[in-house]
Specification:
Length: 321
């Protein structure tokens, strides 16, 4: 039987996952492998939901959001019994390597499969940018651009009515989307889970200071992990008398055609994963560090502490005055 690779997407979808799938399929075939697409995350390995991919089966997906392989969260796969079954299934198809595109939960699954004898390489595919070992994750750039586009529209109406807008962007444990978009839209305050906040000091005082210099409309960005945008909004209106509206951007940030940056990173990472597997190397995470593609042992990657960019946060505070 021809030597084979497989690819799956797992956890939350992210724009650019398709670009990564395409890269794995094309680079796999280029390097002499038969390549299988596995549907619905790890579930596909348990249900035999796989399809052999050819060069043209990934045509026209580079620019599409979501994932053509579908994604899922598999509870069963958390148990060793099913991880061993999945590995056995891979062996039955002569799969010598697997590429998993997802977040840190998916990385744990990739580590389990590597341990069960199937060399597996994981790519960081999540809009949150919450993978410590990588400067960028696949989907982060597109999600930020979508958020900026939406907040620019909110700003138009906030400006017309001299309003304050409190906008929640995605990021459960990670304030990167909030920080980056906050800078890009000129937010008065940016509230992230990594930094303790005080509404009086970090929001109300800043609004008053800006009001004194003639500013009439305000954007406050809040990361999803902080939450409470309705309450924050009521508080601002109550304390300042400025009409204040709350908006939760939600899943709109997960969709849409991937940006150039996400397509590029996804392609670069997908090819790097195939190169590792072609050498028989598994149990690695592909990452982007200072513009270069690198790889780490999965456990090392999972144990790395995530560092919030305090410097960039200070930059944001210095210009939003
Ligand atoms: P996102 O960042 O979008 O949440 P994620 O990959 O972190 O993505 P999870 O739901 O945490 O999303 O994990 C996706 C899947 O990975 C799980 O449904 C499960 O199948 C597998 N998985 C997660 N943790 C483990 C684990 N400890 N062992 C084996 N498999 C796991």
């Amino acid at each position: 039987m021809a030597k084979s690779l497989a690819v799956l997407t797992s956890g939350g979808d992210a724009p650019g996952m398709n670009a990564a799938v395409r890269a794995v399929v094309r680079a796999g075939i280029y390097n002499g492998f038969k390549v299988y697409g596995v549907y619905k995350g790890y579930n596909g390995l348990l249900n035999g939901d796989v399809k052999e991919m050819d060069l043209r089966s990934v045509s026209d997906i580079l620019s599409r959001g979501g994932t053509v392989l579908y994604t899922a969260r598999s509870k069963k796969f958390m148990q060793e019994e099913y991880q061993l079954k999945a590995a056995e299934y891979c062996r039955s198809l002569d799969i010598e390597g697997l590429v998993v595109i997802g977040g840190d939960g998916s990385f744990r699954g990739a580590r389990a499969l590597s341990k069960a004898g199937i060399p597996t390489v994981a790519l960081p595919g999540t809009i949150d940018n919450d993978i410590a070992c990588s400067d960028y994750t696949i989907g982060f750039d597109t999600a930020m651009n979508t958020a900026v586009e939406m907040i620019d529209k909110i700003r138009d109406t906030a400006q017309s009515h001299d309003r304050c807008s409190v906008v929640e962007v995605m990021g459960r444990h990670c304030g990167d989307i909030a920080l980056h978009t906050g800078i890009a839209v000129g937010a008065t305050s940016i509230i992230v889970p990594e930094i303790e906040y005080d509404l009086e000091r970090d929001v109300i005082a800043r609004i008053y200071e800006q009001k004194d210099t003639g500013k009439k409309h305000f954007i406050i960005i809040v990361a999803e992990g902080v939450g409470g945008v309705q309450d924050i909004s009521h508080y601002i209106q109550h304390r300042t008398g400025i009409e204040t509206r709350a908006t939760i951007l939600g899943h709109v940030q997960r969709g849409g055609s991937p940006s150039l940056r996400d397509r590029l990173i996804a392609t670069d990472m997908g090819v790097a994963a195939v190169h590792l597997l072609a050498k028989g190397i598994g149990n690695r995470v592909i990452a982007s560090q200072n513009g270069k593609i690198v790889d780490y042992d999965i456990t090392e990657a999972l144990e790395m502490p995530r560092v919030f960019d305090d410097r960039l946060y200070k930059v944001a505070m210095e210009v939003s005055i």
